[in-house]
């Protein structure tokens, strides 16, 4: 399969230099994600301040897509309200699972659009969405 479009510079750069890497000190909540198909593991920490994501971080091992997606997820969600974070999750999930019929629907996702090609590779969807599901889980528990 052709991974050329998936491994764009943005993904490789975030894989090499992940943002918001490391544990958050208490008080924070965390959730873990595991993708047995690829071997990806991720833990996402999140601290809410009222209704806002005051801080978010992650640690993970696995493929470049899973790490880059986690890194860019933390950037996308940090500082957002709970509702905004959930809306970004919904948009991202729809994109990587191929539910966006029109590429214009991905516009609101900004540079997260680099993961749009994942929709064509079903085995990679879980890599790209792993950290997002962990974020949603911890958001709902926080
Ligand atoms: Zn993976």
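Sequence proposed for the structure above (142 residues):
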């Amino acid at each position: 399969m052709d991974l050329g479009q998936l491994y764009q510079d943005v993904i490789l750069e975030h894989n090499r230099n992940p943002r918001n890497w490391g544990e958050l000190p208490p008080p924070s909540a965390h959730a873990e994600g595991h993708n047995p198909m690829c071997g990806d593991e991720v833990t996402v920490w999140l601290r809410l301040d009222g209704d806002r994501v005051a801080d978010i971080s992650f640690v993970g091992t696995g493929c470049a897509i899973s790490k880059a997606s986690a890194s860019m997820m933390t950037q996308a969600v940090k500082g957002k309200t709970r509702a905004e974070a959930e809306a970004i999750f919904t948009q991202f999930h729809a994109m990587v699972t191929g539910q966006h019929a029109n590429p214009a629907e991905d516009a609101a996702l900004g540079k997260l659009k680099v993961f749009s090609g994942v929709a064509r590779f079903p085995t990679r969807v879980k890599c790209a969405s792993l950290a997002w599901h962990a974020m949603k889980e911890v958001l709902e528990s926080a």
